Amino acid sequence: MLKRVLPVAAAAVVLAGAPAAWADSSAPSAQPPAKAAGHAKPSDKVVRETLDNGLQVIVVPDRMAPVATTMLTYKVGSREAPKGFPGMAHAQEHMMFRGAKGLSAQQIAGIGAALGGQSNAFTTNDSTTYYYTVPSQFTDVALHLESVRMKSVLDKPADWKQERGAIEQEVSQDMSSPIQVAIKRMREALYKGTPYSHDALGTRASFNKTTAKMLKHFHNQWYAPNNAVLVVAGNVDADQVLAQAKQLFGGIPSQKLPQRKPVKPGKVESKTIHMPTDSGYGFALIGSRAPGSRDAQAMATTEVLASVLNNPRGPLYTQMVASGKSLAAQYTTLPAALGSIGVSYVVFPKGADADALVKQMRSILGGIAKKGISPDQVAAAKRQLITQDMAARDSISGLAHRWTQAVAVDHLQSPADQLAAIKNVTAKDVNQMLTQLIQPDQSVLAILTPEGSGAPQTGGGYGGSESFAPKNVNHVKLPEWAAKPLAKITTPEPSLKPVETTLDNGMKLITVDSDSFHAVHVYGHIRNAPDLETPKHQEGVSDVLSQLLDFGTTKHDRKAYQAALDAIGAQASAGTDFSLTVLPEHFDRGLDLLAENELHPALPKHAFEILKQRAAASQAGTIASPDFKADQAMRRGILPKGDPSLRFATPKSISGLSYADVTDYYHKVFRPDLSTIVVVGDITPAEAKKAVTGAFGDWKAQGNKPDVNLPKVPDNKASFHHVPDKSQSQDTVQLAESLGLTVNAPDFRALKMANQVLTGGAFASRLYRELRVQRGLVYYVSSGLDASRTRTQLTFQYGSDPDKVKEADKLVRQALVHLAQVPISNDELHRVRAGLIRQVPLGEAGADSVGYGLLSRVELNQPLNEPYRAAKAYQSIDAKQIQAAVKKWFRPDDLVRVVQGPKPK
User: pLDDT tens digits, residue range 174-199?
Assistant: First the structure.
């Protein structure tokens, strides 16, 4: 459904994704591997070998789900780009999807769509990685594809001409983000004169000078087996995968690699960068050089330091966030192999004194360095990091990434080396590192001040739609090694068996027991609807309550509660969505602490007054931001006048809240008979029920159960809204309309298949092919059916230059018209079925996907095995049924358009 623009307490999460330049993703997929009768169970030991040609192969078995991730990393990134061409590695990453000798771009796209798995690639300063997460019986298909691309990419001039348009749209997208621009300028200042002075993204100017011949030369130089690491993780036979890797990659010759450029930066020239931002809140970032990840002990020390500094018990949070002065204050690292960037940042409401906040942050960090970090603080941080490390193993793709980072990037033997380094960190190490990182004369300051961008402009709809009937997708003949295994689509069976029970107080408990999990993960949700449950003139009460839950319990104040979590290395959060991650031996204690926060929050009055003032100031900036205006424009276009979801908090409504308003809202909304808890881990249903009953069993509901289902909405009419955004050079375009069916209606699955035709399977989908592959109008285009129990919306989003918006918009509408006019071809139907059916087991390939997936099904009132029921249904839905559903429910002439950025030309 339409997503509310939040005021941001976790504001600068964008920092976490800053270093990487992402390419292109296919649709998910999955299926269980065939079991050979009479064969011994495959070994669960890690198997590794360096082939004669230098390729390092590592196979990490994991029996969590019938899924595998292949991750092939080349030790080449933006650091090796030729002078004047900073995006060369990134460009070559894109071109790897444009075809290789004996494997066309259409075949690569077709294989990705038929696999149904998640595929992507990303380029950093030091490496370029390609991965597939697929049903494990198709591991050899993914490996075969990668071996062909390693041997000989095509890099044809005509292909580069088309792909250049898409990659330039990606540059426009990132350069339309003020914080990305700030980090880019910070990097230039900190690593001036080195290969790290630029990021992996590249620039329009450099891409305009780049030729296909240059890209081919770059591939020939660096894409060699002796410069690569192949990691395969998942439910595979390690010896069999190793044998396949030898067969597929063993014959590719090694080659002499060019000399790598050193990273030897000079003295930092301290400077301040001032920039506007389109966000409703501001950022102040202090960046300094930090150790590279290849220095394992120094990097481990930095991780421990960050955990200490970010602890809610610490002075950074206490004096800057809990005091109400800022929305967030943390330390993070943007890693690179030979030199990272350490960033201390504060997020503040519009109108706050940024200079004063920076001064205070520097003072706090200086005070910590002067006083010193104690061994107890370091021990607590290490316990937290050990739990995080164990939890990170509870994902097949995450497991592959851990090994890739450790071996391919950090040049370690295994992720165990990283954990060992963390365990060896001392308080002395941490204090020395802090002193090194906070020197003002060795840092760069960036201040991003929120500014308005003008009022939205609203116009009418489309007018009549054209009749458009392009040919169906051409048949793509796959190579035999892919065609044969992908021909038959088998309906998967669940590998995990959730056990559902209901406690006496009405709380639902779902337990997923598997010895593949290393930590215990608890996911909780209370069904609620602030748009319905918030009393008149109290808009914003749910946000204030959410922040107030961070202030401890009736038994433990804020610091004491965090200390109790630190003592067992647990991570917990309270709210209508609540969670816990803890090691198995601490499960009972962790669950007790979670319940204590959820059922007996302190809700201190003094904190309420502080948070109310901060929330009001923050909301003033949020309402003025283009993001919020675009969200509201879409809501007004989709929803009827007076709809509950048109409500939003204002500084006035927040300032008018009383303490009783917040506590009354808590008692009304927080109730067991609307709550569900999912426990995922190596724990039996009986053990989980005993622990959950002990922690939550005495919780009783107060008053009548509220109605949390929004009313149905009528069909909307077309409208156009332009939201100016001075910070963006590229437009963000959203298209949406209400649909008159619910998620459990008979036609919903047919519409899911129609959506898969539009954007599922990435390059094999109609909109990716039309908008990106053939015309280079966009970097990405997404579509989806956003649904609740009572409402469904068809949504599209893409980013495009202002002069390309009109053509892209027209093509989206034409695609909808064509879906209603002409049944999809048999080949396309096969790809759609394969993509949707094979993605199902991926929902069991990680603790988070299992836990949140089950909560989602409860929220939507669906059976817990709904994905497998849907997979069976997809086998029987034909092209005519898809066409009929599209014709009945999709209305191309009624799409609401919201364009954020420059005015389309």
Answer: 888 899 999 999 999 999 999 999 99
CB distance 79 to 125 below 8 Å: yes
**What value does the mean pLDDT take over residues 189-211?**
95
794-815 per-residue burial string, b: 16 or more CB within 10 A, e: under 16: bbbbbbbbbebbeebbebbbbb
Q: What is residue 389's predicted lDDT score, i.e. its pLDDT?
A: 96
- AA letter at 96: M
Helices (H) and strands (E) in the chain, counts: 32, 26
Q: Count CB neighbours of 902 within 10 A.
A: 19
* CATH number, domain 499-696: 3.30.830.10
DSSP for 260-321, written as a single string: PPP--------EEEEEEESSSEEEEEEEEEE--TTSHHHHHHHHHHHHHHT-TTSHHHHHHT
Burial of 420 (0-12, 13-18, 19+ CB in 10 A): middle
Dist CA 213 CA 182 (whole Å): 33
Whether 457-492+712-900 and 18-249 are alike in CATH topology: the answer is yes
- Predicted confidence at residue 3, as pLDDT, reads 40
Q: Is 413 exposed, middle or buried (0-12, 13-18, 19+ CB in 10 A)?
A: exposed
Residue found by looking up tokens 């926060």 in the block: 597
State how far the Cα of 602 lies from the Cα of 694, in Å rounded to an integer: 21
Integer-rounded Cα radius of gyration of the chain: 27
Those residues with Cβ within 8 angstroms of residue 632's Cβ, 6 or more apart along the chain or in another chain: 648
What are the structural domain ranges in the chain?
18-249, 279-450, 457-492+712-900, 499-696
- How distant, in Å, are the alpha carbons of 31, 186, 562, 722, 805 from that of 310? 41, 22, 12, 39, 42
Burial per residue of 195-226, b for 16 or more beta-carbon CB atoms within 10 angstroms, e otherwise? bbbbbbbbbbebbeebebebbbebbeebbbbb
Distance separating alpha carbons of residues 678 and 566, to the nearest angstrom:
23
Let me know if 701 is exposed, middle or buried by CB neighbors in 10 A (0-12, 13-18, 19+): middle
The whole-number pLDDT of residue 186 equals 96
Alpha helix ranges (H) inside 116-155: 139-151
Q: Class for domain 18-249, per CATH? A: alpha beta
Residue 471 has pLDDT above 80, yes or no: no
Domain at 279-450: CATH architecture: 2-Layer Sandwich (3.30)
Q: Which CATH architecture has domain 457-492+712-900?
A: 2-Layer Sandwich (3.30)
The model's pLDDT over 772-781, given as tens digits with 9 standing for 90+, comes to: 888 989 989 9
| Token pair 């080396």: residue | 417
The neighbour count for residue 406, using CB atoms within 10 Å, is 23
Neighbours of 274 (CB within 10 A): 11
Q: Please state, in angstroms and rounded to a whole number, the distance separating the CA atoms of residues 35 and 313.
A: 51
What does the DSSP assignment read for 777-816? --S-EEEEEEE-SS-EEEEEEEEE-GGGHHHHHHHHHHHH
- Select from 233, 568, 579, 576 the least CA-distant residue to 406: 233
**pLDDT digit string (tens) for 729-740?**
899 999 999 999
Whether residue 455 is predicted with pLDDT greater than 80 in this model: the reply is: no
How far is the C-alpha of 81 from the C-alpha of 89, rounded, in Å? 6
pLDDT of residue 15: 52
pLDDT reading at 226 higher than 80: yes
> How far is it, in rounded angstroms, from Cα 197 to Cα 189?
7
Give the integer Cα–Cα distance in Å for 122 and 433: 30
Query: Of all helices (H) and strands (E), which one includes residue 530?
Result: helix 530-533
Both tokens of 694, joined, read: 């002990």
Q: Is 50 left (phi over 0), alpha (psi -120 to 50) or beta?
A: beta
**Do residues 878 and 884 touch, judged by C-beta distance below 8 A?**
no
- The structure tokens listed for 648 are 């939003």
